[in-house]
Amino acid sequence: MGGMDAKKSGWFVNRAIRFFLGAIYQAGQMLKWDSKYELGNDRIDAEHRIFLSLIVDFHDAAEQDTPKDKLLRIFKEICKYAEFHFLSEENIMIDHRYPEQEHHINSHAKLLAEANNKLQSGSISADDAFNFLFNWFAFHTSSEDKKLVGYIESGTDK
Ligand SMILES: [Fe+2]
């Protein structure tokens, strides 16, 4: 009976380790700049690269058990950078008379408000902060920003 349990728990531990290693591998892959993040607008792509590298800084700092106040400083740095980057994108939208600018600008405002709430609360875990930042980068970039660059490239505004 005991032998069965040991076997079972060995199997479980094995699976857990493999799952854990797989997750680290996947996170490592996701955190590398990839052609799928490249939208085709030089300025927006250059800023997205910096945005991702800041998220990598946060991730690495969190992995190294960096003190919480330093993690919060990096989180704040990312929020400040995002604010700058959003202004860049919004100016591009205005220049190109992007028809969906109001919706896109609203989603920027929502993301910044959510980030500021997290900052203000001061009690977010490193995991929560990282998931929030990475989802923000992956989803906003691949949906809204992709649409914007597609519109600019279509030349509809000319
Ligand atoms: Fe955007």
Written account of the structure:
- This protein is mostly helical and 158 residues long.
- It has two domains: 1-30; 34-154, Hemerythrin-like (Four Helix Bundle (Hemerythrin (Met), subunit A), Up-down Bundle), CATH 1.20.120.
- It has five helices and no strands.
- It has helices at residues 2-30, 42-63, 68-95, 101-121, 126-154.
- α2 (42-63) packs antiparallel against α3.
- The N and C termini lie far apart (76 Å).
- Residues 89, 104, 108, 140, 144-145 line the site of fe (ii) ion.
What key phrases describe this protein's structure?
158 residues; mainly alpha; Four Helix Bundle (Hemerythrin (Met), subunit A); 2 domains; globular
Helical fraction: over 70%
Give the mean pLDDT.
85
Shape: globular
CATH topology annotation of the largest domain: Four Helix Bundle (Hemerythrin (Met), subunit A)
Total of domains: 2
User: What summary fits the major beta sheet?
Assistant: none
- Beta-strand portion reads under 5%
Number of helices: 5
Number of strands: 0
Low-confidence stretches: none
SSE pattern: HHHHH
What is the level-2 CATH architecture name of the largest domain? Up-down Bundle
| Subunit arrangement of the protein | single chain
Keywords: Iron, Metal-binding, Oxygen transport, Transport
Family: Belongs to the hemerythrin family.
Domain Hemerythrin-like: 41-151
Protein name: Hemerythrin-like domain-containing protein
